Amino acid sequence: MAYTLDDFDYDLPHELIAQTPIKQRDTSRLLVLDHQANTLEDKHFYDILDELHAGDAVVMNNSRVMPARLYGIKPETGGHVEVLLLHNVEGDVWETLMKPAKRLRVGTTVTFGDGQLTATVTEEREDGIRLIEFHYDGIFMEILEQLGETPLPPYIKEKLDDPDRYQTVYAKENGSAAAPTAGLHWTQELLDQVAAKGVKLVYITLHVGLGTFRPVEEANIEDHKMHSEFYRLDEAAASTLNEVRANGGRIIATGTTSIRTLETIGTKFKGEIKPDSGWTDIFIKPGYQWQVVNAFITNFHLPKSTLVMLVAAFTGRDQILNAYHHAIEEKYRFFSFGDAMFIK
């Protein structure tokens, strides 16, 4: 069946968009959707323990959100510039989103802080994307920690008191422009309980990039082009996942970034799980043939987004929209700081 963008729309009351994180990570609500039995259960995230069985594997994305938003000035005019770092191309060259892009041509210089960091635009691309090269003395990431801000999604209007609340407790590998938000519900204590139950904890990496910030604009979703993101699954992770599979356990992904990594590898290797790294622009939508993931944890996603389409590829469109309507009626909290679903 051919779907249009409007097929993935739903009406969300504005007050259900979570503006701040809940006080205790694992007390957020959890809507459990059994897509084969077509049942819904209202629980809390700490109840995830009841949904996981010895021999399963829970896969988590350990990418860390960089303080990727910088505010600078053009020395020749005094004009203000906003920069969002997307990913490191090579050396000190970064792909970025810049505003106001029209005034930022090749050769333009921008300074940040008290001149600790300067950047020169080296290439202009579409949609406000620019390649820039940084110049500095010292260690780039240390300077970035001083000058940069954690970039929050545009629908979050409140300032974040504790930047660590927009990081997972297992965030390790610097490189994301946005958090893998399904993982924000995990606490270390809950992960320890999961491991004690005989569930394997597996960490992979996908650095969240521009795709998170880019809306789908094409009416025919087949015409939408995903932005590439870097992923890595190492030998130890692949070995554990293959062992779990061989013993009949389920592979349970935490979030759409873990799904995209696992399914990229599964698609590439015809259903097999092998150590791999590279760039993925996989677009998972209804009709997709699942290769690796048996169940997953995810947040509630924006209307008309590629993430709603991804979830619908697992459950079917009608079932996921029915679940979303239930969540709205029950006043679940939506998006990055919102509640979660477990879909099995």
TrEMBL record:
<dbReference type="InterPro" id="IPR042118">
    <property type="entry name" value="QueA_dom1"/>
</dbReference>
<dbReference type="GO" id="GO:0005737">
    <property type="term" value="C:cytoplasm"/>
</dbReference>
<dbReference type="Pfam" id="PF02547">
    <property type="entry name" value="Queuosine_synth"/>
</dbReference>
<protein>
    <recommendedName>
        <fullName>S-adenosylmethionine:tRNA ribosyltransferase-isomerase</fullName>
        <ecNumber>2.4.99.17</ecNumber>
    </recommendedName>
</protein>
<dbReference type="InterPro" id="IPR003699">
    <property type="entry name" value="QueA"/>
</dbReference>
<keyword id="KW-0413">Isomerase</keyword>
<keyword id="KW-0808">Transferase</keyword>
<keyword id="KW-0671">Queuosine biosynthesis</keyword>
<dbReference type="InterPro" id="IPR036100">
    <property type="entry name" value="QueA_sf"/>
</dbReference>
<keyword id="KW-0949">S-adenosyl-L-methionine</keyword>
<dbReference type="InterPro" id="IPR042119">
    <property type="entry name" value="QueA_dom2"/>
</dbReference>
<comment type="pathway">
    <text>tRNA modification; tRNA-queuosine biosynthesis.</text>
</comment>
<dbReference type="GO" id="GO:0008616">
    <property type="term" value="P:tRNA queuosine(34) biosynthetic process"/>
</dbReference>
<comment type="subunit">
    <text>Monomer.</text>
</comment>
<dbReference type="GO" id="GO:0051075">
    <property type="term" value="F:S-adenosylmethionine:tRNA ribosyltransferase-isomerase activity"/>
</dbReference>
<comment type="function">
    <text>Transfers and isomerizes the ribose moiety from AdoMet to the 7-aminomethyl group of 7-deazaguanine (preQ1-tRNA) to give epoxyqueuosine (oQ-tRNA).</text>
</comment>
<keyword id="KW-0963">Cytoplasm</keyword>
<comment type="similarity">
    <text>Belongs to the QueA family.</text>
</comment>
